[in-house]
């Protein structure tokens, strides 16, 4: 019988890399040596690079619909996504980092869809989160039927995960806007506190609504209306303003993102004719990294369009036509320099997240565990979401 310890590491890697993500997760439960090896920093960060990201979209009204689709880079892999329906509850994703999701379904959950593990986060001690998720009055025109997650303010919430530890240590950071001053509220899941850090700017400019913060190089980055950036390091709790100059035209569609290949901040600037990819170099200047033709659009029938996702390998555009109830997603393969129709549905929302799996643990500390009744319907919803997100392994020539 050949033991795990008897195999050369390079041979073991070749065997494990050929497994599907779900099979890999099951193997972790069969043997302590396998579990230890799969969570070792020498292996853990490598395997996800062989797995295609998943594009997640949640549309919420009186019920929530979730769409999950492998974020493919070639038309050869185009396939239908998955859909789940939730009755009488709204679901919202507040963050995605290192294979973990920060979800809200009545409670905040930190979820690992690959290992099916989750942790409940008590947000009652936060000053900022309750107004965002606590609901609105019946007379509120934005939600006449009841509680609503205020998605237009969700960009105030940042979610980060320490990638250097075997047991993932996460932090939730909320930014508080006060005219020209900014404060930061932090939680590691056990308690909430206000950082001593205060950032004062010379001019008043709000954060761009619906533009989520981007986590790059150990810092969370928020984009302001004047195109400057607020950077905050959750470990050192140092903050700074990056006065970047960027002046798009009124008809330009902009996406604030990160290039996973280069680990650089990225601004996607698109018109109906062309899309430009800018990277931030030296924390001062946006440099044009690439430009290509936008997907062909019939302007006479076009109701709206926007750029919704980018990861360095591909870019996704959302398009809605006037005479059709369908909304199309188009994917641009950066390497192949070509467009393909990604998916068509009747209700793609504007909120898209990319997810890449990891195997790391997020179990509760028994002394700080938040208890939820086992028959709570939202736990069933959470299980459904985790089942929906099925990561797909990259196909390589030698597979």
From TrEMBL:
Keywords: Membrane, Transmembrane, Transmembrane helix. Residues 4-43 form the F-box domain. Pfam families: F-box (PF00646), FBA_1 (PF07734). The chain crosses the membrane at residues 91-110. InterPro entries: F-box-assoc_dom_typ1 (IPR006527), F-box_dom (IPR001810), SCF_F-box_component (IPR050796). Residues 91-267 form the F-box associated beta-propeller type domain. The keyword Cell wall biogenesis/degradation does not apply. The keyword Transmembrane helix applies. This is F-box-like domain superfamily.
């Amino acid at each position: 019988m050949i033991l795990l310890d008897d195999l050369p590491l390079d041979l073991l890697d070749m065997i494990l890399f050929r497994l599907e993500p779900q099979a890999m997760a099951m193997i972790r439960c069969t043997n302590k040596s396998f579990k230890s090896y799969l969570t070792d920093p020498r292996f853990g960060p490598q395997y996800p690079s062989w797995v295609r990201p998943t594009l997640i979209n949640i549309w919420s009204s009186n019920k929530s619909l979730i769409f999950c689709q492998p974020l493919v880079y070639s038309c050869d892999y185009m396939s239908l996504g998955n859909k789940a329906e939730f009755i009488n509850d709204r679901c919202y994703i507040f963050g995605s980092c290192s294979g973990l999701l920060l979800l809200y379904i009545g409670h905040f959950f930190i979820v690992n869809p690959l290992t099916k593990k989750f942790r409940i986060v008590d947000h009652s001690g936060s000053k900022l989160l309750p107004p965002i998720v606590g609901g609105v009055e019946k007379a509120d025109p934005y939600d006449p039927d009841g509680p609503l997650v205020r998605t237009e303010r969700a960009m105030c919430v940042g979610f980060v995960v320490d990638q250097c530890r075997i047991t993932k240590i996460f932090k939730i950071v909320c930014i508080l806007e006060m005219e020209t001053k900014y404060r930061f509220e932090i939680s590691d899941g056990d308690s909430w506190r206000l950082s001593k850090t205060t950032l004062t700017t010379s001019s008043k400019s709000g954060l761009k609504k619906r533009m989520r913060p981007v986590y790059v190089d150990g810092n969370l980055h928020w984009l302001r209306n004047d195109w400057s950036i607020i950077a905050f390091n959750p470990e050192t709790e140092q903050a700074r303003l990056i006065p970047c100059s960027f002046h798009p035209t009124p008809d330009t569609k902009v996406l604030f993102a990160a290039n996973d290949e280069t680990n650089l901040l990225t601004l996607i600037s698109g018109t109906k004719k062309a899309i430009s990819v800018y990277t931030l170099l030296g924390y001062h200047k946006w440099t044009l990294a690439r430009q290509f033709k936008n997907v062909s659009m019939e302007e006479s029938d076009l109701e709206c369009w926007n750029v919704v996702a980018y990861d360095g390998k591909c870019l996704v555009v959302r398009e809605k036509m006037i005479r059709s109830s369908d909304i199309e997603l188009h994917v641009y393969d950066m390497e192949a320099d070509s467009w393909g129709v990604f998916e068509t549905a009747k209700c793609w929302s504007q909120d898209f997240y990319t997810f890449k799996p990891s195997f790391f643990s997020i179990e509760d500390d028994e002394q700080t565990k938040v208890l939820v009744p086992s028959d709570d319907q939202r736990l069933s919803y959470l299980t459904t979401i985790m089942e929906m997100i099925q990561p797909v392994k990259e196909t390589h020539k030698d597979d």
